[in-house]
Write a structure and sequence with these properties.
Layout: H1 3-13, H2 16-29, H3 35-53, H4 55-66, E1 81-84, H5 97-100, H6 103-118, E2 123-127, H7 137-147, E3 155-158, H8 164-175, E4 180-185, H9 189-198, E5 204-208, H10 228-253
Length: 254
């Protein structure tokens, strides 16, 4: 089996919602022969699902990940490259190219455009493979940038990286020794910086797409009730935390 596919399968299996499903199936399987174990499994499943959807828990889990790097503000020094890491999209010629981008890709593209307007001397590197689509994520992001006014010759595409580690490996040789800004979602930034630094590149972070915009703001009572969107947030925080742990182990054994 392809190593990339194997990593994706394992990652999906250990996400909170799938752990809940496994516990529910286990509760059903043990219902007759081991009723006490069945009840425990059911309670664990409900508890995990409830906690994962509670905004106070989800925000406290996500906020420390997102707060590692401050939003980018214009600096006096010249910038050579703005790297936009790949994310999701769906090819559909009926839709405008901006609507083909997934939320994370759209957030990164908009942030890259904002920074390009601050640093028009820079070139933009878009990244990301096609997956099940005909066109790569890198190309779709480029098309969106060009549509919004960036000259096509200012955008370089890296069409083949499948994940962040591959992006760092392929892009690093081009940008070594230059001033680089790295654009990705705030939750994804710590892992991304680690991968690029491992290749000798020290990019300036430009996080975007914050889940938690102001954890200390006053909250109304609905904030303390379960919210389906927070399950997605908790899953993302869990995924990024596991990714950082894997990076740490790799650094020890390499």
């Amino acid at each position: 089996m392809d190593l990339f596919l194997l990593k994706k399968i394992i990652t999906v299996l250990i996400m909170p919602i799938n752990i809940v499903l496994v516990l529910l199936f286990l509760a059903l399987f043990l219902h007759r022969k081991r009723p006490k174990a069945s009840i425990k499994s059911l309670v664990f499943a409900i508890t995990l699902l409830l906690i994962s959807t509670l905004p106070p828990f989800s925000d406290r889990l996500m906020s420390p990940i997102e707060d590692n790097y401050a939003p980018y503000v214009k600096q006096d020094k010249s910038i050579d490259y703005i790297i936009v890491l790949g994310c999701r999209h769906t090819n559909n010629p009926v839709l405008p190219v901006t609507s083909q981008l997934g939320t994370c890709s759209l957030q990164r593209m908009v942030e890259a455009l904002r920074i390009y307007q601050l640093h028009p001397e820079a070139r933009i590197i878009t990244s990301g493979y096609s997956g099940s689509n005909k066109t790569s994520n890198a190309e779709v992001v480029k098309q969106a940038l060009v549509l919004l006014g960036v000259p096509a010759q200012k955008v370089i595409t890296e069409n083949f990286p499948k994940d962040t580690e591959e992006e760092a490996l392929l892009i690093a040789p081009r940008v070594l020794g230059t001033q680089v800004i790295l654009v990705t979602n705030a939750d994804h930034m710590p892992r991304s910086i680690n991968y690029f630094e491992a290749q000798g590149v020290n990019p300036i972070a430009a996080p975007t797409g914050y889940w938690v915009k102001n954890i200390n703001a006053d909250k109304s009572w609905p904030y303390y009730l379960p919210n389906g969107r927070k399950l997605d947030q908790t899953t993302t925080a869990w995924y990024e935390t596991l990714g950082l742990v894997v990076q740490w182990f790799k650094a020890i054994f390499n």
